[in-house]
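Example 5.3 — Membrane-associated proteins in eicosanoid and glutathione metabolism
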Amino acid sequence: MPSSIVLPPGYGYVAAGFVATAWVLGWQALVVGSHRTKSGIKYPQLYAEKAEAAASKEAMLFNCAQRAHQNTIEHMPLIILTTLVTAMKYPVFAGYACGFWALSRVLYTLGYATGDPVKRNTRGGIIGEIPLVGLLLGSTYTAFDLLRSSA
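Solution (predicted structure tokens):
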């Protein structure tokens, strides 16, 4: 028996936020691949060893680009979950917050990929905490409201 899912008005913003995140992840993978090639770090090695990074600027740049990408991947479950829950009641807010977070990851990566890890936050990457906190609060409120209305 067929069933359907009804999406709230404005859900296109959520889709756009997720698609922006996918593009950022793809771009980060290209940045990492470029630095991997330049550094000569072969697969399956995930990072340059400490001695390699100390001896080669290219290896250090690879480690920084790889770490920025890995950190984004580590955040994805939280971003996906909180965006989807928040979007049940506030799809436009959720979509914008997810998209804003994706943009912040570009700034984070550009700063980190300079080879100076401190620049991951000083180049604007820290602003990604704003939409993340907004999504955490939005999803918490949405879950509470859904529980309250079902009681």
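Remark. The helical segments are 11-39, 50-55, 57-87, 91-112, 119-122, 129-150.
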